[in-house]
Design a protein that fits this description.
Length: 331
């Protein structure tokens, strides 16, 4: 509903940059809370053997939305204007909420803590679980580094392609829309490759593969060859990420007790967002001192160290204890 304040303020002539910042902050906070709650509900709703299938379907849907959303959003802005497009976006969130109410299944009610407020220790419980669990700690630190560096190169690449290399906007959009097909491919392969090679081997192998492609963006040249280079590199990164992410999400749910899932996923999201912001700022400063190409090169070199953070032994991990049985299956 906070998105609807934008067209209302615009109609009253009171829209300001400050309001846009507040709306962005509220939307980001709501996204973190929703992702944490959805992960907890997924574990309660879906059988253990179906968790990977469910996470792979979410991953496939995410990449489909990324591929179609920006082009459709841009077309809507061009046809109807930004205010009408924001109204449509806000209504889509309302329809999503109505759709969630149609989910059938049993969910355990949270137990009262006996206190009227959340203790400070409970707010840190998610990070405590992540950092004391050997497997999750390794994967968390690895994800912070990999995700932060990949996202930090996005604004640098925009400056490089649109500014220094003179790519037209439609080619820039094409360079990021086409590789999203890899997201559909990777997510569809997740269950098959895990069944064949095992969860730990996929985490180790594909987790390392994510790190080897980024440096290719530092060698982009003008023209068709440069466009093909960006598409190829982004395709390789996305297909690796979309195969890795469902396996990681499944492992994270398996290794986290039900009463800690929301706090753990919240801590994971907050840490990821903070790391992306910090590394993006550092990348921008480095690009200012040197050049966007040099900053991308540095990110591509640093990310080579990320596989060292991946867990080395699968035998140290065991499923988290559960206090109640899960019910239902995937719809």
């Amino acid at each position: 509903m906070v998105l609807l304040t934008i067209p209302v303020a615009y109609a009253l002539g009171r829209l300001s940059f400050g309001q846009l910042l507040v709306v962005s902050a509220v939307v980001a906070t709501a996204k973190i809370a929703f992702n944490a709650a959805s992960g907890a509900f997924l574990k309660a709703l879906v059988r253990p053997d179906d968790l990977l299938v469910a996470n792979a379907r979410f991953e496939s849907t995410t990449w489909g939305a990324i591929a179609l959303g920006p082009p459709l959003g841009g077309a809507a802005v061009g046809l109807f204007g930004p205010v009408v497009t924001i109204v449509a976006d806000a209504l889509s969130h309302l329809l999503s909420a109505l759709g969630l109410t149609a989910i059938r299944g049993h969910e355990d009610h949270p137990r009262p803590t006996g206190a009227g407020r959340v203790r400070a220790g409970e707010l840190l419980d998610g990070w405590r679980h992540l950092l004391t669990h050997p497997g999750l700690r390794a994967l968390y630190l690895n994800q912070l580094l990999v995700g932060g560096l990949i996202m930090a190169t996005e604004p640098l690449l925009a400056v490089l392609l649109l500014g220094e290399l003179g790519f037209p906007p439609w080619q820039y959009g094409l360079a990021f829309a086409v590789p999203c097909v890899g997201g559909l491919i990777g997510s569809r392969l997740a269950r098959r490759v895990v069944a064949r090679h095992g969860q730990h081997r996929i985490i180790r192998t594909v987790g390392a593969l994510r790190a080897i492609w980024l440096i290719g963006l530092a060698f982009v040249q003008p023209g068709v060859l440069g466009l093909a280079t960006v598409i190829a590199v982004e395709f390789a990164i996305i297909i690796s990420m979309s195969l890795y992410n469902p396996v990681l999400a499944t492992y994270r749910l398996q290794q986290t007790p039900k009463d800690r899932i929301v706090r753990t996923l919240s801590a994971w999201s907050i840490g990821s967002s903070a790391t992306i912001a910090a590394l993006s700022a550092l990348g921008g400063l480095l690009a200012q001192v040197t050049s966007p190409r040099t900053a991308i090169m540095v990110a591509g070199l640093v990310i080579f160290a990320s596989p060292l953070l991946l867990p080395r032994r699968p035998d140290a991990d065991r499923p988290a204890p559960e206090r109640s049985a899960r019910v239902s299956t995937i719809a």
